[in-house]
Amino acid sequence: MIHESVYELRKNMVGSLGVAHGKVEILDAEKLRRQDIDALVRDAVFGSEPVKSYARWLIWEAGQALNARPGSIHDFYIARSRNEWQDRTVPAMNLRFTTYDTARAAFRAARATDAGAFIFEIARSEMSYTEQKPAEFSACLIAAAIKEGFQGPIFIQGDHFQVKASTYQKNPEAAIQEVKDLIAEAIPAGFWNIDIDTSTLVTLEPESLDEQQYHNYTRSAEITQYVRSLEPAGVTVSLGGEIGEVGEKNSTPEELDAYIEGYKKALAAYGDLAGLSKISVQTGTSHGGVVLPDGTIAKVAVDFDTLKVLGERARQHGAGGAVQHGASTLPEELFNKFPEVQTLEIHLATGFQNLYMDHAAFPQDLKQQIYRFLDQASADERKPTQTDAQFYYSTRKKAIGPFKPELWGMEQDRKAALYNALEAQFKFFYEKLNVVNTRSLVEKIVKPVEYHQPMPASARRAGDDLGLAD
Fold first, then answer.
1. E-assigned strand segments in 117-237
2. 3 state SS of 16
3. Low-confidence winner among 105-119, 190-204, 268-282, 451-465 (lowest mean pLDDT)
């Protein structure tokens, strides 16, 4: 049930949440977890704009009270550069679909394995086709943590906050401003980990590596300064840079040196600011994997030697290490290799979507509806040589937003099977990437900041009606 008004929503929260003087008080945490958080998160996703903003504010403030708070992984990664920990690879997991229930599965797996070093993320492009703005995404994650009783920092990351090369060629400042506008929306929503992706601006025509990386590192430094100007008190947003497009040629140590040395010089012009905590590199993978005509995924050879060398080079420059993108569709037997070569972070996305949409419990009639939708909505993306399997595999992510109500409203028995399978998959990654038993390590290094969002005007009006506000 979606509440029709802020007044109705607040009235139904009486008993679990109290609101007074612009602050939220937990009156009955068990009631909140048992039933009310489910209603709140649905309002945060599907309600009218006033209801959404109020529900998201209540979720955020409840998370502050229950120690389910957004955090920055910056200090944890800088500790790695000092060799305070090693042999672990932090999974950064893109949640495209049913974020609340999927995150619940991830938190259950984390509690079962005592994991604390993991990231939830969403890319700029994913926000568009999954219809998830930053405030909605973070609300779902915090609500999931509350539901599952998870406490500690929640690392929420903006993945590939990418400058569009085509826009940059026509109007450089407009292209940069698009990313700045997204950052200005994301940071107040708890996105305190951001991957700055200006690798699209690398030009290979110049002879010197410095010239090739020039637009990449100067714009990375400019965006870094902008992020630092928006940080809440006590927060150092974890920032990542990128030296090459995922799916293109493998990165080299010389390219990394050219990028980070140029970046440091460019950043120094803005003053004494914290720099990057990680650098994304290319070592042979591609986003989503390469699908063959029969719908299976082509095998990929990851250059682990290069990944190891690049990670060591990144640490020499003061960052935590190198980041591997496009890895979720790799063979399962490869994942233990990433901690062995000291990969700092690994990005996992399409594999979760594949498990979800190809699982036997996923309704076949819904899948056919999605495919019929794609036949029309994504017809211009179909290549003449593509089979149906290749076309649907490459485009079905575009149906996640339009079919959000159907995915959220699936029957409970089907949902149980799907999210149990996802929970097992999250646990697999925590174990293979060796982030089990990291909760105490994270809590030792990362100190979550208490940060209160302003009460929406609609909440004040509803509170007045109920005698709950100033």
1. 119-123, 152-162, 193-197
2. coil
3. 451-465
In whole angstroms, give the CA distance from residue 255 to residue 264: 14
Contact 109, 426 (CB under 8 A): yes
CB of 142 within 8 A of CB of 70? yes
Strand, helix or coil at 242?
A: strand
DSSP-derived 3-state class of residue 322: strand
Rounded-to-integer distance, Cα 423 and Cα 436, Å: 14
Q: Quick one: angle between helices 6-13 and 49-65, nearest 10?
A: 30
Per-residue b or e along 438-450, where b marks 16 or more CB atoms closer than 10 Å to that residue's CB: bbebbeebbebbe
Place of tokens 């037997």: 333
CB-side exposure of 325: number of CA atoms within 13 Å? 26
Contact 251, 310 (CB under 8 A): yes
Closest CA to 238 of 78, 72, 400, 80: 72
Domains of the chain: 6-67+454-466 (no CATH), 70-358+410-445 (3.20.20.70), 364-399 (no CATH)
Within a 10 A sphere around the Cβ of 333, how many other Cβ atoms? 8
pLDDT digits (tens, 9 = 90+) for 72-124: 999 999 999 999 999 999 999 999 999 999 999 999 999 999 999 999 999 99
Amino acid identity of 225?
Q
pTM above 0.90, yes or no: yes
- Long-range contacts, stretch 250-255, CB < 8 angstroms, 24+ apart: 250/282, 250/283, 250/284, 250/303, 250/306, 251/281, 251/282, 251/283, 251/306, 251/310, 252/306, 253/309, 253/310, 253/313, 254/209, 255/209, 255/212, 255/213
